UniProtKB/TrEMBL annotation:
It is found in: Endoplasmic reticulum membrane. GO terms for molecular function: N-acetylglucosaminyldiphosphodolichol N-acetylglucosaminyltransferase activity. It comes from Balaenoptera musculus (Blue whale). The keyword Transmembrane applies. One of its GO terms (cellular component) is UDP-N-acetylglucosamine transferase complex. This is UDP-N-acetylglucosamine transferase subunit ALG14. The chain crosses the membrane at residues 6-26. Keywords: Endoplasmic reticulum, Membrane, Transmembrane, Transmembrane helix. Coiled coil: none annotated. The keyword Transmembrane applies. It holds the Pfam family Alg14. GO terms for biological process: dolichol-linked oligosaccharide biosynthetic process.
Length: 172
C-alpha cells in the first residue's frame, strides 16, 4: 500500500513538472530581435517547393544558414533548391522551422517542439498555410495551428475563423 502511494506521488510530480514545462514552451512571448537565425525548411514535392522558395526569396540574409529536408525520391525539389542556393549566397545559426503544408513537416515541427520541451534549444515554428487553402485549413495546418509560434494565412476568411493566425495578404 505504501509503495503504491509513493509511486502515485512520483507519477503526479512528473505530470505536474511536464505540464509546467509545456506551459513554459508553448506560452505566447514577444519576439526577440536577433542578428541571425538558422532556418530549417521542409520542402514538399511539386507546388509546395515552388511556394516555399518564393517565401525564401523575400527573406533577408538574417535567416541563414538554411537547411533543407527533402524526400529521397524528390529529385526535382532538390534541383530547384540547389539552383536557388547557387543564386543566393549562403551566410549564418538553426532556430526557425519554416514550412507551408506538406505532411512531412508535421513530424519535423513536433521534433523541433520537443527540443524546446527538453530544454535543448528553442526553435521557432513558422507555418504558412498554402495559398490554395481559402476557407479551410489543410490537415497539416489543423495540427500545427496549435503548435506553431507563427501561423500565417493568405486569405481573410481564414483569419476570421482562426484569430490566432496572422494575415499578411497573398505572400506567395
Amino acid at each position: 500500500m505504501g509503495g503504491t502511494l509513493i509511486l502515485a506521488a512520483a507519477a503526479g510530480t512528473v505530470a505536474v513538472l511536464l505540464a509546467v514545462r509545456l506551459w513554459v514552451v508553448l506560452r505566447p512571448r514577444a519576439a526577440v530581435p536577433r542578428r541571425s537565425l538558422s532556418l530549417l525548411v521542409v520542402a514538399g514535392s511539386g507546388g509546395h517547393t515552388t511556394e516555399i522558395l518564393r517565401l525564401l526569396e523575400n527573406l533577408s540574409d538574417a535567416y541563414s544558414p538554411r537547411h533543407y529536408i527533402i524526400a529521397d525520391t524528390d529529385e526535382m525539389s532538390a534541383h530547384k533548391i540547389n539552383s536557388f542556393e547557387v543564386n543566393r549566397a549562403d551566410r549564418n545559426p538553426s532556430a526557425v522551422v519554416l514550412c507551408n503544408g506538406p505532411g512531412t513537416c508535421v513530424p519535423i515541427c513536433i521534433s523541433a517542439l520537443l527540443l524546446g520541451i527538453l530544454g535543448i534549444k528553442k526553435v521557432i515554428i513558422v507555418y504558412v498555410e498554402s495559398i490554395c487553402r481559402v476557407e479551410h485549413l489543410s490537415l497539416s495546418g489543423k495540427i500545427l495551428f496549435h503548435l506553431s509560434d507563427y501561423f500565417i494565412v493568405q486569405w481573410p476568411t481564414l483569419k476570421e475563423k482562426y484569430p490566432k493566425s496572422v494575415y499578411l495578404g497573398r505572400i506567395v
